[in-house]
Amino acid sequence: MTTKKLHTEEFTVNMGPHHPSTHGVCRFKLTMDGEVIVKAEPVIGYLHRALEKICENRTYPQCIPVMDRFEYCTSMSCNMVFALAVEKLAKIEVPERAEYLRVIMLELNRIASHLIWYGTTCLDLGALTPFLYAFREREDILDLFEMTCGQRLTYNYIRIGGVSRDIPEPFLPKLRKFLDEFDARVDDYEALLNGNPIFITRNKEIGVMSKELALAYGVSGPALRASGVRHDLRRDDPYSIYDRFKFNIPVYHGGDCFDRYMVRMQEMRESAKIVRQALDQLPEGEISTRVSPAFKAKEGELYSRIENSRGEMGVYIKADGKEKKPYRVKMRGGSFNQLMVMPELVIGHKIADVVAIMASLDIIMPEVDR
Amino acid sequence: MKREKLVEYIQEKFGDRIELLESGAVEPIFLIKNKDDVFGFCKEIRDDLKLQVEFLCAITAVDNSDNFEVIYSVASVSKIHRFDFKVVLDHDNPEIDSVIEVWTGANWYEREIWELYGINVKNHPNLSRFLLPDDWNQGHPMRRDWDAPDFKRMPDL
Lengths: 370, 157
Prior knowledge:
The complex is a heterodimer.
Chain A lengths: L10 E5 L11 E7 L2 E8 L7 H6 L3 H9 L6 H16 L5 H29 L4 H21 L8 E2 L2 E2 L7 H23 L3 H7 L7 H6 L5 H4 L7 H4 L20 H25 L18 E9 L2 E9 L8 E5 L1 H13 L4 H11 L3 H5 L1
Helix pairs in contact in A: 2-3, 3-4, 4-5, 4-11, 4-13, 5-6, 6-11, 11-13, 12-13
Chain B lengths: L2 H12 L3 E3 L8 E4 L5 H10 L7 E9 L3 E10 L4 E10 L4 E3 L8 H12 L2 E3 L35
Parallel strand pairs in B: 2-5, 6-7
Antiparallel strand pairs in B: 1-2, 3-4, 4-5
């Protein structure tokens, strides 16, 4: 029996820009062979707000609210990376209490960001329940931020030389209560998904990223640690006072979506551990060094980086020593590199897997487009 | 590697091809004297067993009005050290070699400096519109002398 060979041809599918799973506005030009992806090309720039150019026209303290908009899921980290760079450049000392408050806020913000990731990933994969649980805990964290600095998303809390406000009285009891319950809550999250056959089938062996591929593309953070590289800037290039805390760095070796999920779940527990230690050691004292609003940094340049929930967040600052404004600010976010590597990961998969891979890499578009 | 040892090692290895800059008082910054040497330098620091620079953090460009600087921030994940190096290009016809062959992740960073600063990247596979709109025709907005028609500067403080 002979079968007549059917004529086939490749075709292009536009995914996005207004697609709920792209977490912002990103478009993929997917070249398909039937249901299988042959080539993918991300089209970005829809959220470009020229933040780097804006920073060139602001004084140093005015840049911090701009940094808030760089990556709004972890605004604390954005504030921190800029403040840290200016402090290094201008040799500003930060009081002890401010350092501890910074660490507490950064780690809480990391948990909040991972909770968003957990909720929206499950939403993308069709599980609606975890989203509600994740946002319940995130709400607690946002309440803590709100009572401290009045904001729930763009905090402008970590300033050059310290932090803007001390924590109010009800903060500590509320935080202790949150931490007491949190580990059990993470157990609940894992119980919802770890044994779920649909979740496992959609994540295991999907979007496998080898160690070499990850390093070549500059992938960092949880995505890199899921590929078997033990690299965490909090330990390898300690900034602030991270060398005083004991915590584990979760590492998995598969490099697939499921391992990236596991790394982030473990990281939430580790962050809670750091917050507990910081609370126990929290000293009394000043919360900020006085810095003039119109101060000039000395001539110099610096690339400073911290570990954000999405990988390495860095900022390059060049000061010319004559003006009150930075001469050049360059922002580097983890999502930029994670999106760059995506075309390599999706080849051979189906469109539904693009959603899973993008969710597992935790890409957020304002960080890519700036 | 510790900072002093790292600086010493790099200076010894590359001799007069590079120069340690004063502006890098906080973190070491080297200047590559010949701009055609960038690709070779990148390849050597990646393949050197003591440096093992396998991670590219970022590529940044700066417009100094009379010249351009391109700054490469690199790190080693296995040896845990980090440094920057830069190269100076003339303002009229800025051109630089692509380092995608060394670090694949350089791709989008080079597209960005091509688009926003107008620095031509030789041997780049895909220099096309990136962050700006597809129909953009108003030059390179990150250059210092660029002004949009409706752009209002902040008053001096």
